[in-house]
Design goal:
three-stranded antiparallel β-sheet; 0% helix; 32% strand; globular
């Protein structure tokens, strides 16, 4: 995960990790550090162009990257700590 920015979002007790990179422009998603959610706090939002993504699967449901997905980051939790699990393609 060296050199990559990661975002973590918790919804209904489930943790979701994604690369902090908009599929449309490849830029980091937040304008204010560590703030990724829309005003309703129910969707991830790209601050550059307002694209909205479902928290549970990273699917873009509104905006220029419609139907594209955020890249999931594999992880495991042990003793309340998050550990990244390398992707076989990296």
């Amino acid at each position: 995960m060296a050199g990559k920015h990661i975002m973590a979002v918790k919804k209904y007790g489930d943790i979701h990790l994604y690369e902090n990179s908009c599929p449309h422009l490849g830029i980091q998603m937040e304008m204010v550090p560590d703030q990724f959610l829309d005003s309703s706090r129910s969707l991830i939002m790209c601050s550059m162009h307002g694209a909205l993504f479902r928290i549970e699967d990273g699917l873009c449901i509104s905006g220029p990257c419609l139907n594209q997905k955020l890249k999931e980051v594999n992880f495991e939790i042990h003793n309340e700590l998050i550990y990244f699990v390398p992707d076989k393609n990296e």
